[in-house]
Amino acid sequence: KDVQKEREPHAYLSKEEVKEKIQCYNSSVTDKLKMTLNANGIYTGFIKVQMELCRPITVQSSQSQGRCPHSNNETAFYLPEGCVNTLHISSTNTVREVIEALLKKFFVADNPAKFALYKRCHKEDQVYTCKLSDREHPLYLRLVAGPKTEMLSFVLREHETGEVMWEAFTIPELQNFLRILDKEENEQLQILKKRYTAYRDKLEEALGGVWKPG
User: Fold this and answer.
1) Could you give the count of Cα atoms lying within 13 Å of 120 in the half-sphere of its Cβ?
2) Which of 7, 28, 43, 121 is surrounded by the fewest CB atoms within 10 Å?
């Protein structure tokens, strides 16, 4: 169940409360991805982000990194379902910074403005998916919820169709999308043609058996 974009401000914890929360959090961690509290009050830790992308992404090859953006060494493809990535971030990192870091880590050349980060949580036997605002701090949400992903998980998605910033796409990206769509359309068309050809052959065979000349 998708709900509206997160709007409620969070009552951030005091330094002592953060310290207690981190101790409790680390005592419950089972995958060694613990949080660390620094002397300045900033803490660091890990979040896992599930990639739920419907549209193809543009990835730079290792040879094109550092060169002009959108070079010929870029490839557009669909990300496999169920892909989960782990990021090491701090409590000061915002949602927008997390999205940018995630794309940079995997050499994704697409504009970060095309994507949104969601939180998914379980309440009263229901699953709620809520879009986070750019000013949210994912590690704080992770700390408050605890380490169990069943209680809270993060999901990266494209903006909804009505929210897509088409001006964020470059001409080569749009052309890549069209090529992929054309390929999928042709594949589906061939499947349909084969299906109806087989159906027509069976009908003609059945009619031939019924109307044999006497």
Assistant:
1) 16
2) 7
pLDDT tens-digit profile of 56-106? 777 876 544 444 444 456 677 677 777 888 999 999 999 999 999 988 887
Q: Which residues contact 142 (CB under 8 A, 6 or more apart)?
A: 45, 47, 152
**Extended strands (E) in the chain:** 2-3, 36-37, 43-51, 57-60, 74-77, 83-90, 115-123, 126-131, 152-158
Q: Report the SS3 class of residue 49.
A: strand
Q: Dihedral of the CA atoms 107, 110, 114, 116 (nearest 10)?
A: 0
Partner residues linked to 49 by β-bridges: 85, 154
In order of 19, 44, 141, 142, 152, the CA distances from 41 in angstroms are 9, 10, 16, 17, 24
47: which 2 tokens? 């979040």
How far from chain centre, in Å, is Cα 53?
5
**Planar angle of CA 6, 101, 71, nearest 5 degrees:** 120
